[in-house]
Design a protein that fits this description.
It is built from three helices and four strands; from the N terminus they run ββββααα. It has about 120 residues and is α+β, with helices and mostly antiparallel strands.
């Protein structure tokens, strides 16, 4: 039987379909992987012959290379009781070092002196 080969390229697929004269697909070849799929068994030999003949005109598929192995992430140091914020107030160690105005200035919070100034 005379089959017609038609290329179909959509949705990330690149295929070559083997169709009977009325346009019904009876098989296809994936041009990316080179795999041939027969949809109707009675046309198996014709589909393979037509698609194999047309696949000679296309370059061999280039398969993706294996992904490189990811490097192991460095381990974080173990947490200590001083790191536990449920028992320790945040910024408590800085309370004796910085004044309230310095902390407010660093974090962009208006202190009571700036609240009444006309800038």
């Amino acid at each position: 039987m005379e089959l017609k080969a038609t290329r179909w390229k959509r949705y990330g697929h690149d295929r070559l379909y083997a169709n009977v004269p009325d346009g019904t697909a009876v098989g296809w070849a994936d041009l990316i992987t080179g795999d041939i799929t027969v949809l109707v068994d009675e046309y198996r030999d014709d589909v393979i012959a037509v698609l194999a003949h047309h696949l000679r005109n296309y370059p061999k598929p280039v398969l993706p290379q294996e992904a490189p192995e990811a490097e192991a992430r460095p381990m974080l140091p173990p947490l200590t009781p001083a790191d536990d914020l449920s028992t320790n107030r945040a910024l408590a160690p800085l309370s004796g070092v910085l004044t309230a105005e310095q902390v407010e200035r660093v974090y962009g919070v208006a202190c009571h002196r700036q609240a009444w100034s006309l800038a």
